[in-house]
Amino acid sequence: MAEQDRYNRCEKKLDAIDRKLDFIANQLAGGASNPNYEDRSGPQWDEWLKFRDVVGDFDSQKNQYILVTDAVPHEHLECYSMLRGVSWKMILDFDPLSEEEGFYRQFTSKEGQSSLVSMFTPEELNQSTMKSLIRLVDPNKTQWLFVNGRSGDNEGGSKEFSDWEASSVKGISSLFRCCCDKDTFDQLKPVICLILPFREQSLPYLQVTLTRLTENFNNLNLRFVSVDNKNRPSEISEIFNVQSFHLCPKILHLGLMEVLVMSGGQTLRMPTSHAGVMVNLSPRQHLYIKEHLDILYIGCEDLPDDSDDPSESTEKDESFLEQQRRSFLSGNQISFASLFDNHDARRQIERHSDSRSTSS
Predict the structure, then answer these.
(1) 232 within 8 A of 94, measured Cβ to Cβ
(2) Neighbours of 290 (CB within 10 A)
(3) Distance (Å, rounded) from C-alpha 144 to C-alpha 148?
């Protein structure tokens, strides 16, 4: 077990080195043709730092995130694809071709990613009752709404605005009503809605959709942020109080690499069948496991972060176990850590029954 533990530590360090090398390679590849991409001291990088502060580093432990996107130009698709590393609660996709060649295809290109998405179209929503729709909304998945349909469906995807408003808005509002429930969105966490660049012809659809979103999410702290939206009219910014940031796709990509790749993001430590050996999971891997496996003890991933310093790791473990012990003794439900450390009762488990009980 000690040898396995050393192997895991070495593997983690090698993964960190690989991420840094990938980051340097990407920077060298793009920096030669674009000085702003290489220079982190320019005004665009200052704009990124302000944007990063507003979105809270895309930390899903502190905020909840909604993405609003339209058709993305192919030359920018790779830059925006870094956003798939964010734990989105909902994605409002206005591109009917997204599944074939757009952001949805980029988002689900990795194996297992599609199982983390619940996909909806307005036509499907119109055919569902509120009771059946509540069962379809999985709070552990990203709710992906094709706002203007999909080109591969029988309806043919995109509709004229007047037809869309008459036939689709009711179903979209129904989804928003289901998603604003406390089981899907945490009522205490702010909701940050990021708007990517939009085509001019999609702006009427955007305004109506955001209006329905704000009407249903009025009990939540909902904030709107946009990047590089040159076509967005001023009335949309005024109505929804949008904070705008002028970030070119390459600067956004560079910043997202730093936040989502270099930092490694939050990891969850879960015990394996081998005593003393932990596995580190990303939030999306954890969601994938919850989807396909039954976790024996809910909360068993809430163990303290591992540390390279053994003494520091021991102090963290002891402090964490003491907190769990006090929580259980105060009347709260027992945790996996308390079961492991015998906080409920110290007991001796025998393989064979007592001879006296056998004779009786």
Answers:
(1) no
(2) 13
(3) 12
Element (DSSP H or E) covering residue 193:
strand 191-195
Q: Evaluate whether 283 touches 265 at the Cβ level (below 8 Å).
A: yes
Longest Cα separation, the chain: 88
H or E segment to which residue 119 belongs: strand 117-120
Q: Is 16 helix (H, G, I), strand (E, B) or coil?
A: helix
Closest CA to 241 of 258, 262, 221: 221
- What is the pTM assigned to this prediction? 0.65
Domain limits of the chain? 56-248, 268-340
Residue 76's contacts (CB-CB under 8 Å, 6 or more residues apart) are 249
Q: Is 254 exposed, middle or buried (0-12, 13-18, 19+ CB in 10 A)?
A: buried
State which amino acid sits at residue 352.
H
In terms of Cα–Cα distance, which of 84, 76, 83 is closest to 250?
76
In angstroms, the CA 67 to CA 195 distance is 6
pLDDT in tens, 5-19: 777 777 667 766 766
Structure token pair of residue 336 = 């996996």
How many Cβ atoms are within 10 Å of 354's Cβ, its own excluded? 9
Enter the CATH code of domain 56-248.
3.40.50
Q: What is the pLDDT of residues 298-307, one digit of tens each?
A: 556 555 655 5
Residues 6+ apart with CB under 8 A from 104: 93, 95, 98, 144
What CA–CA distance (Å, rounded) separates 110 from 39?
Answer: 31
